[in-house]
Amino acid sequence: MAAGKKLVIVESPTKMRSIQGYLGDGYEVLSSVGHIRDLADKKDIPAADKPAYGKYSIDVENDFDPYYVVSDRKTKTVAELKRALKSADELLLATDEDREGEAIAWHLLETLKPKVPVKRMVFHEITKDAIQAAVGNTRELDLALVDAQETRRILDRLYGWDVSPVLWYKVKTGLSAGRVQSAATRMIVDRERERMAFVSADYWDVEATARSAGAGFRVRLVRVDGGQLARGSDFDDAGKLKKAVVVLDEKRAAALAAAVAASGGGTVTGVDAKPGTRRPYAPFTTSTMQQEAGRKLSMSAKQAMSVAQRLYEKGYITYMRTDSTALSTQAVQAARAQAVSLYGDAAVPLKPRVYASKSKNAQEAHEAIRPSGEKFRTPASVASHLDREEQRLYDLIWKRTVASQMSDAKYETTTVTIETDAAGEKLKFTASGTVYTFKGFLEAYEEGRDEKRGDADAAENQSLPQVAVGDDVGMADAEAKGHRTTPKPRYTEASLVKALEEHGIGRPSTFASIIGTVIDRGYASKRGQALVPTWLAFSVVRLLEQHFADLIDYDFTAALEDDLDAIARGEQKRVEWLRQFYYGSDAQVGLRQVVDNLGEIDARALNSTPITENATLRFGKYGPYLEVADPANPDAKPRIVNVPEDLAPDELTSEKAQELIDAPVAGDRVLGENPENGKVVVVKDGRFGPYVQENDPVSEDDAVDATTGEVVETPKPKRGAKKDAAPKPRTASLFRSMSVDTIDLDTALKLLSLPRVVGADPESGDEITAQNGRFGPYLKKGADSRSLESEAQIFDITLEQALAVYAQPKYGAGSRRASSALAEFEADPVSGKPIRIRDGRFGPYVTDGETNVTIPRGQKPEDITFEAAVQMLADKRAKGPAPKRGTKKAPAKKTAAKKAPAKKAPAKKATTKTDAEKAAARSAAAKKAAATRAANAKKKADA
Asked: Which of 56, 67, 68, 319 is an active site residue?
């Protein structure tokens, strides 16, 4: 770096490249690639410091002093930054302007210890004007923001490291608890509990088609003899009515429908037209962007933030972590100008719209999420520069921003009331229709909506004909319609984000990672867009509610967030607040007191949920199961019945449980006899999955259950009885596409015949076989194996097709699979080679052609950003190459190890004893033992 240059440090390689182009030759921009240091692992704390810092890497007795270390994977990065700093005359810390970015800047300052002037450079969009303006308007580091972030980090460490071990010992190893994570898990579980307790109610109504002047429209029965007809909202969660209404059953509704059809018509008794307006939605905050990306684009919160991060760093949108709905004057002008150019002068109101931000946090003082620049680029103009996901999210942000400055939409809702006499009863029907007289902002954007209870009762919007009071209308196609009340819908990621924000739990910038953790820990799974809690989550929440009630309380968790915000604003002191949280005060019990006074925790009770009088749901090492007691013999060992993994908790009703209990046993089902050897082929459901097995023919002493086909085993020999060694029976795992319930004998015999000989290679003469392995189907020729695309190919592939597979370069060295990547990024800053995500034999992985990193289970390839990929590769390089198999024997091959035995060889020979010497030694030892026993006996006698 040339003398006199200014060093700018950002946290992202993409951001680094974008900013370098705007600053010119007088600056050098480098990236820290995220945080450079964090709280130390226990193993990294020196022995002298372990008494104070050993438990949490925090000295709780000394003002909660944290012990930070530069991680191994960042030592090279820090060295490069220090080297560049030596020849710089000024340091500009240009990390993100939120508390996380402020903390990264502070850690850089503490680690690099610069001797040149240091300035904090902040901006909320990466454009040339914004970057150059930021250079001219620097500020000092905001230590209040740093305190807030450090407090949050210490708080999460104390919470997680004190509470998580309780889960390991009482529920399952590998679990975790967290300040926001546990509250979010409780929300998901609470919603499922509501669904489980919900009692559905049935109600009926009548619909018909009314006709006037040849135009037909649907009408719905709302009153019978003046009494209001029941709707779903009239019932509570116990299936009871909340007010006096008329509830029709199927029989009466059918009779009324027949009477309406017989009457042939009715009279219009009311036409009510009401005008209305709809205001546009505010520009995106982090939370609303995540919600809309989930509803409209089916993106997870994590995926939405990842894509938004890329858009920001490439300079297409403003900073994506914000609680603000405000727009700058330039952005308002840009949005209004674009709306006028696309939709005309009437598309915008006379005065610009101003949206007040609800946030009072200092770090959230910047703008809403919007397209960057003083003139917005249309989605079409940037499409060629963005990938598909980036295009879709940019289009959403652009539309929302432009619509936020457009005119109100105007509409008119008309309700028509029709009355008729049928079977001696006075019936009233209604129909509604809404017509937009001016679409306004709806020309550009309409917000999505989450599923709600009562949606089925909402009147269908339709076009109504011109009618007047007193007009006679025909009535036809009358039909009785049955309805059933439904519980609240499960949370989706979008609705959970909204609920967390409404409760004040967590911060929008953390929602994506929190939801990801809840899913990765096995507390919830996704069914479509819905988040379905697991029985594991029920056990965890039950433990937390019983023993850590305050920590999982929604209001308490929200109050923690408010306190952390107060620290960020400089209104509260970090150490005082941490002391109250950990040790307690007059107003609250401290975490330390709660953990020290847990008392006895009944792990079996925590993991038990009664389903019926005799069946209890338990969660074990291998998942949920029913423990079924025999009422006739309560002391007998309960029967175990597996619960399907895809069965949601609210679906395990008492009826479903009985169905599982009464279901025939699928395991050990006899499929038939192998005609080649006379052995019996059975299908089993084992610990590691279903498989088929050949057994010796059933003897006369054995029996087969006529109902289930299950072989009744003969009594096992008594323990200690010697068995003759017997050859293991042939087994074969079922393919993933196969089922224990449906597999037949022919298929089982095919599986048992594997590996299948496809043919011989005409060139080498080597036999080619097709088989199934731990990592999927594959071909084998000598020591050379090639993966197959599907399990069906094992039975179908021909010799010609197999030779064609072998004719291609082996995967990883230029094959067609290796040439196609799941995703491609720019060059890695270390190797200079492009980064790609590929799908390998052992799953998806990140590679730059030199270093490969497997993507962890539970993380999707599409969620990997360029920055994450760079970090993963850097971590792998820091670890060094993986040790080869057999390295445990390496010490024996070292030169020193070879010499050592040679020196000791004479000593070994010298100490070798003859048989006579060994016998004498044993005799001496026996005499010594006898003398000891005699001495002990004498002592007892004397006593």
From this structure: 319
